[in-house]
Amino acid sequence: MTSPALHFLDKKHTIASPGFNRWLVPPAALAIHLCIGMAYGFSVFWLPLSKAIGIKESVACSADIGFFQELFITDCDWKISTLGWMYTLFFVFLGSSAAVWGSWLEHVGPRKAAVVSALCWCGGMLFSALGIHLHQFWMMLLGSGVIGGIGLGLGYISPVSTLIKWFPDRRGMATGMAIMGFGGGAMIGSPLATLLMGIFATETDVGVMQTFIVMAGIYFVFMMGGALSYRIPAAGWHPEGWSAPVEQVNNAMITPHHVHVKNIFKIKQFWLLWGVLCMNVSAGIGVLGMSSPMLQEVFGGQLLGIAKTYNELDKAELAAIAAIAAGFTALLSLFNIGGRFFWASLSDKLGRKMTFIIFFILGSLLYLSVSGSAMIGNKLLFVSALCVILSMYGGGFATVPAYLADLFGTQMVGAIHGRLLTAWATAGILGPVIVNYMRDYQLGLGIPREQVYNQTMLILAGLLGIGLVCNLMIRPVADQWFMSAEELAQEKQIEMEHHRHEEEEVGQAVDIESPSHPALVYLAWSMVLLPLSWGIYKTLVNAAKFFG
After folding, report:
1. Which of 31, 150, 158, 313 could form a disulfide with 226 if both were Cys (CB 3.0 to 4.6 A apart)?
2. b or e along 220-250 (b: 16 or more beta carbons within 10 Å of the residue's beta carbon)?
3. Distance, first Cα to last Cα, the chain
4. With bands split at pLDDT 50, 70 and 90, how would you rate the model's confidence at 346?
5. Alpha helices in 201-236 (DSSP H)
């Protein structure tokens, strides 16, 4: 039972009143996604944390110190490879928590789930800050990796079903706007963290602990603001002047019925879509994680206009191409975030299945072209191919919630989306392993650095081929899996109240609200677009180094 003081978190108290402007919901979702999206940018902390004791230089642990000892040791610095486990845990617990608590989210509503997300994400950062102060890595893993990872999962899926219900006419665009924020979170968080660490760093402190505390406070304000702004549409609501078009009703790939989440693992279309997402993410995430070293090793001195391979460059030249590669990585991040909105919106016109067909066919061709571009030294073709690939990587994340709603209905799409995100957790391991280990294997065979990614590109194109087959096999869901009218009514009664009682609650809970003032909509959007614009500006500054 919810405490009377917390009744405002109950789902029935988030039902929108007549006159509520649905365009207030996307900035609420963005406020949360822009905060939790910093998970992508946590690598900005690795180098300073690897010198938390030594400050100027890392104090290396003795050779006999293993990973388990590093969890508790206090007199030597953590290795960057050890710190990277926080990043791994982020996405493992994102997928697993979304799968475990997705059904709970559907019953309690997006506001309560988003508040729990804020408490976990920001509370985890504070616990990690204490771990930095005490130099206890287990506290950082528990704080940010586990507790923060749970916050990631709940925050990631909390707006999905809500936005789909508010925008039945633009499902792809609506989810694209929110999930765009997750891709853009690091564009704001990384330069902000760098700025704060510069302010807090001293001769005896690298400034990461204080940065964690400040960012946790900032994120908590934004996430709570977003959570408390969530509203869900009243039963039977639809956009003014809109009705389901005839072609949509007759489109067997877009169902008006609903599948219960308890049956989702029994349906082959779910597993085919699981394979679609896993293959798309595996191919993209592997390249995303190795984009900087790949550009440097493939082109070497060509990035500076000199005829030298990577191994022939001196220290100053290596530093110069590293700066250029950082600009390339920034450019990829822009295409990653832009692709989330562009492709998801385009899927409203093309359909989800056709959009993924484009992802897989075009993506495979682009992967196959990368090796040729590298061999002839054409940087423009090489970079253009990877930029489009990363746009489709982000576009896959943003399009798949609408694909789920098309196939399985909107009633439990948040919970079903949570189950599907286990594909992301799997891809987060599969993609980097393929790229990293294939690189090491090729180097071990004595293959030149500029050629070590050729075979990898073929494998990644093959992964997209598997995804294409999975996508082509997707057919409309059989009628036997849809809830009957009685089952649907029972589910709605469990989650909040029967329709008649729901209308009574609307009158008691939210009729006191006046229609949304247009100025409120502009204010809400400015609150998320201003920091996002700042992040884009900082990213463009870094990207300019590549072209410079």
Report:
1. 31
2. bebbbbbbebbbbbbeebeeeeeeeeeeeee
3. 60
4. very high
5. 208-229
Tokens of 374: 């590298």
d(CA 41, CA 301): 28
Helix (H, G, I), strand (E, B) or coil at 38: helix
DSSP assignment of 471-482, as one string?
HHT--PPPGGGB
> 354-407 pLDDT, tens per residue?
999 999 999 999 999 988 888 888 888 988 999 999 999 999 999 999 999 999
Query: DSSP H helical segments within 52-109, as ranges?
Result: 67-70, 80-108
Q: Is 236 left (phi over 0), alpha (psi -120 to 50) or beta?
A: left
Q: What is the DSSP string of 409-472?
A: -STTHHHHHHHHTHHHHHHHHHHHHHHHHHHHHHHHTT--GGGTTHHHHHHHHHHHHHHHHHHH
- Give, for 126, the enclosing helix (H) or strand (E): helix 110-134
- CATH code, 24-234: 1.20.1250.20
Task: Report yes or no: 171 and 402 within 8 Å, Cβ to Cβ.
Answer: yes
Phi and psi angles of residue 333, each rounded to the nearest 5 degrees, phi first: -65, -35
Q: Kindly list the domain boundaries of the chain, sorted by start residue.
A: 24-234, 263-290+341-497
Tokens coding 95: 């997928």
How many residues are given for the chain? 548
Q: Please state whether the predicted TM-score (pTM) of the whole model is above 0.70.
A: yes
How many CB atoms neighbour CB 166 within 10 A?
Answer: 25
| CATH number for the domain running over 263-290+341-497 | 1.20.1250.20
Tokens of 212: 């964690």
Alpha carbon distance 219, 165 (integer Å)? 27
Task: Give Cβ neighbours of residue 504 (< 8 Å, ≥ 6 apart).
Answer: none
CB 226 within 8 Å of CB 10 = no
Which residue pairs, CB below 8 angstroms and at least 24 apart, start in 64-72?
Answer: 70/137, 71/136, 71/137, 71/138, 71/141, 72/136, 72/137, 72/138
Q: Which two tokens stand for residue 118?
A: 């804020």
Amino acid at 433: V
**Tokens standing for residue 467:** 């995804």
pLDDT tens digits, 212-262: 999 999 999 999 999 999 999 987 788 877 765 554 444 667 888 899 989
